[in-house]
Predict the structure.
Amino acid sequence: MSFALKLVWSLLGVAGAIAYGLIIGGVIRKVMARIQGRIGPPVYQPFIDLFKTLFQRTATQHGIMFYLAPIFRAAGGIGVYLLIPVVIGVPALENFSFAGDLLLVMYFMFFGSLGMALGAAEGGHPHSPIGISRGLSQMTAFELPFALAVVALAADAGSFSIHEIVMAQQGGVLNWNLFANPLAAVAAFIAFLGMNMYAPFNIVGAPQEIPVGPPTEFNSTFLSLLMTGRAIFAVAKMVLFMDLFLGGAHSLVEALVKTFLIYFWSVFVGAVFPRFRTEQSIRFFLGWPTAAGVAAVVLVMLTH
Amino acid sequence: MAKTNLPVLPPEGSRPHAPLGEGCFLGETERQQPLALREALATIKNWFRANSLWVMAYGTGCGAIELRPLTTARFDMERFGMAMRPTPRQSNVLIVSGYLATKSLKRVIRSYEQMPSPKWVVGLGSCTINGGMYWDSYNTINRLDLYLPVDTYIAGCMPRPEALIEGFKGLMDDIKAGRANGWNHYLENMDWYKDNQKRLITDWDLPDYNW
């Protein structure tokens, strides 16, 4: 497949991923509502919210970084998504996977949040810096078990390429890293809870505390771009975890089912737990999840 | 009514994306569109706006206690696409819930002007209509309509959550039909509104328009 054709397919994939991420957001709101005994909004509500914010007549901005922050956020999401193969064996949906891309993906996951931090701080609202400092500290904390889990998987597969890691898991359900490397899976899936920022790790946009969090000042078109970025970022994370732990996918349907299950792991945990305080959350990630990550690396080193 | 041409001075560090009076009214490209197209677009946009009302939870008076049940299982306003949004930058509906003290009027004006247009004001309870049981109080306003453009009144002392849902449904119908134009009225009659506001707020230290 030529590069130009692949680019077109990948961009179509980005559009599909945005739509899927928004629908997932609607399903989450519906599920949360049903758990709380409410009827809840329709599943297409995020689309209505997105277009409504896009159709606002005025927008207020506070400087260059404020302009760039949503763009950084969306670029981070699209960058992560474009590097991860979605469906193995279908060139149109394999995106731009290359040797060592896992390191770049982990960098890109930080990139969006750092851009957001710079932009939100320029908004000047006190909730923004509070949310940012909480978010960045928590991110540093959950990055540790996640990085250890990734190192364990890479050492096991002998490569930092996501494609190679997926290929190493073929040949049956028990070959999936979820079962083949259970300690790494535990560390990474707990880090996943922190990444998605549902309870108990929703300290960034903590309701009743710093209600909206960093994007407090973002309005109109800025907000709609942020919502788009959030949707695609969620999909990119789901696909990454599917590739790393659930053996990738060979068809689009398989990918949808697996990513849905992965994401709703964090939603169901979020539905039943109250919120941690900031220092509790950081201590939590640096405790047992990190120990599990270290044990996973040691285990892989010993068995190879 | 003539388009207002106030000298708008934004506060330090905050610049409007479009100057007041240009971004808020019809833009030049929209003015050149055929009327049928413009109306069709407006209908579509208004449908989106009506089905995604983000409410600023600003409890000014005791009536705010009736807003809380709306988020619970019994009344559930989220099924209409409504959500509480505790920042003026992202909200579309300002609810003045009950009596409004002259002191908090200043903050309400400030919050209202920070909201991106189109935006709507809902007056909740009798106190916003004629003062209600506070009609002779020395520190509350009697008629909210003099200071902010109210799109929907929900009468009662206090109105029950069912009445609030009825009021919001009415507001949605108004938005879909293009009748809820309070924000436009506010801009067109800015001088009159500012005059009324300044008559009540003696220590006026706000900019002409709060971006």
In short: The radius of gyration of chain A is 19 Å. The first strand of chain A starts at residue 60 and ends at 61. The longest helix of chain A spans residues 3-35.
